[in-house]
Amino acid sequence: MGSQNTNAPIRLAILEADTPIDPIKAKYQSYGGVFTHMFKRACASFSHPVSLESQLALSFYDVVNDPNTYPDPETIDAILITGAKYNAFDNDEWIVRLVQFTKSCLDGGRIRAIGVCFGHQIIGRALGAELGRNDRGWEVSVVEHELTDDGKKVLGLEKMSIHQMHRDAVLSFPPGVIQLARTDVCANQAMYVPGRLISVQGHPEFTEDMVRELLNMRKYGGIITDDVYQDGMNRVADKQDGVAVAQAFLRFLHG
């Protein structure tokens, strides 16, 4: 893949919808730090590497614990909504406000949106899609996705494998969105509208070490069964395309 050709860094506001578990927090401080690490790896992996600072001017907002933290829309070009342990279909005050802010950004037409896992679901909700528990259960660890023809073009891949950690899903496709990817467990793995939004159900920001920690925490916390845990551990070190997806995010932002 080529490098990004841009005149100015994109002002990207990362809306942090959760706090990492302790081992991840110790290394990255916040999910803003996790996504900063992802974008740094993406910039360094272009055929002509570029610096993160030349591509993005990042800012971070804890939308769970500080309801007044949202950025002034005039000061940003795009938002990225992170993953979270919460249900995107719940009506907690902060979740409703996040949906409303996301909808206002999308309706305004200038601010672009990226969603990851919970963030993918928030974008779906803001656009009127149905959300809920997936009756096919959990998807965890590295999962291979089937890409649509549009997905192959947008993501620059023939097939995509990225980490998963979810059992909630976007159960329908909002009007006008383009499907990019699917799995046997979840049909809506990625949505796209050129110049407006891109979102993925999986976790391009996750590394093997992060997912090992999450699987252990969820097993010993009684959240996932032993079978789901072992299946995930069997695939946790598989090759995955998180960096390529992050590069697609950068192309989307600068396109």
Detailed description of the structure:
With about 260 residues, the protein is α/β, with parallel strands linked by helices. About 35% of the residues lie in helices and about 25% in strands. It contains 9 helices and 11 strands. It has helices spanning about 20-30, 30-45, 50-55, 95-110, 120-125, 150-155, 210-220, 225-235, 240-255; strands at about 10-15, 55-60, 80, 110-115, 130-135, 140-145, 160-165, 170, 180, 190-195, 195-200. The strands form 2 sheets. It has a 9-stranded mixed sheet with strand order 2-1-3-4-11-10-9-6-7, sandwiched between helices. The chain has a two-stranded antiparallel ribbon with strand order 5-8. β9 (about 180) and β10 form a beta hairpin. The longest helix is centred in the middle third of the chain and has 16 residues, at about 95-110.
How are the elements arranged and paired?
Layout: E1 10-16, H1 22-28, H2 31-44, H3 52-55, E2 56-62, E3 78-81, H4 93-108, E4 112-116, H5 118-126, E5 131-133, E6 139-147, H6 149-155, E7 159-166, E8 168-170, E9 178-182, E10 190-193, E11 197-200, H7 208-220, H8 226-235, H9 242-254
Parallel strand pairs: 1-2, 1-3, 3-4, 4-11
Antiparallel strand pairs: 5-8, 6-7, 6-9, 9-10, 10-11
